[in-house]
Amino acid sequence: MGKERDLFLTEKALQMVKKLKAEAWVDYISFSYDICTYIIGHMPNAKVAYLAGDVAPEKLKADGFFGSDYHYSVFQKNDWINPSKKLGLTVNAWTVNTVPEMEWLLANEVEYITTNEPELLFETIKKSPVNSGWKLKWSDEFNGKGLPDAKNWTYDIGGTGWGNNEKQFYTNADTLNVMVDKGNLNIIARKADKENMKFTSARIASRKKFDWKYGRLEVRAILPKGKGAWGAIWMLPTDWKYGAWPKSGEIDVMEHVGYEPDSVYGTIHTQSFNHSIKTQFGKGLKMEDLHTAYHVYGIEWYKDRIDFFIDDKQYMTFKNSGKGSAEWPFDQTFHLLMNVAVGGNWGGKMGIDESAFPTTLKVDYVRVFQK
Fold first, then answer.
1. DSSP assignments along 226-275, one per residue
2. Is residue 255 annotated as part of the catalytic site, yes or no?
3. Distance of CA 329 to CAs 153, 218, 272, 303, 332, Å?
4. Choosing from 255, 260, 300, 354, which is the catalytic residue?
5. Is position 327 annotated as part of the catalytic site?
6. pTM for the complete prediction?
7. What is the pLDDT of residues 121-173, one digit of tens each?
8. Which residue of the set 141, 218, 250, 327 is catalytic?
């Protein structure tokens, strides 16, 4: 009975299919490369796709294939989607039955998705940023192992307190504090002595690797736990055109302090609106599973406003007043930062529970879209 789900759509899914343009075609697919090339050799116009997942798109193109038909995990482990597009090969991903995989494939504009969950896929398509005209410009899915990709990230290093009286030393490319494993980036704050600090952690940035102006940012993450931990996903200007902080602006996409385990915050800082003069613009939300479940923290940044989202639900908007850079310095390129601080003026307000460390900010992916 379980197999029948592959063959029949529900009535709701059928109704949605009827609205789509239908096109008839025949594909020849096989796990045998020899069989595929035999068909190509004897039927030059045949549309042939290979199934086994062990051949790169360049060879498929050279051997006359129409496309690849691989398990979705093959595309996660190999950078084969964009090369396939450039070569004119179709991409089909199969056994795609969960929302995270569907969202990733849709963001990368894969042509075909094979699923046992058609209703779920249709609902995911409707909610996808791509369905609203966004195009993926940059991402990191953290599918490797070891240090994060040096093409995407640099490190802020040191134990200066970082303007907030923080108690950690940020290390340089140390897998004790930053590590990619099992599809996640882990930023880990530890109790460890280093250069007069009692804690170590990491602060990574896309600065000079990927900087952008306007667009949609999504970061799917589980937040660090423990009194004294201060996790952040945030943005700073790349060139500081309007002067030192806060004149050139700061966008705090997500901040979480461990002594408030059920609260998460989004905040804007400018010359006119910042915490040092108690005028910062922000909002906090109550959520119960920040340390155990993934949530997607994001913004949509336009010329006239910045909208803040959690799990695609908008909860705050900061509008461009049109009164100049003191209130709106957000007409320049910014970059992304992610870190776990320890203590500090806000994170350490209720003290530090040393037994809570190590604690980890776990990031599933980072994606930036633009229109």
1. STTEEEEEEEEESS-TT-TTTTT-EEEEEEEETTSTTEEEEEEE-SSS-G
2. yes
3. 24, 22, 10, 11, 7
4. 255
5. no
6. 0.90
7. 999 999 999 999 999 999 999 999 999 999 999 999 999 999 999 999 999 99
8. 250
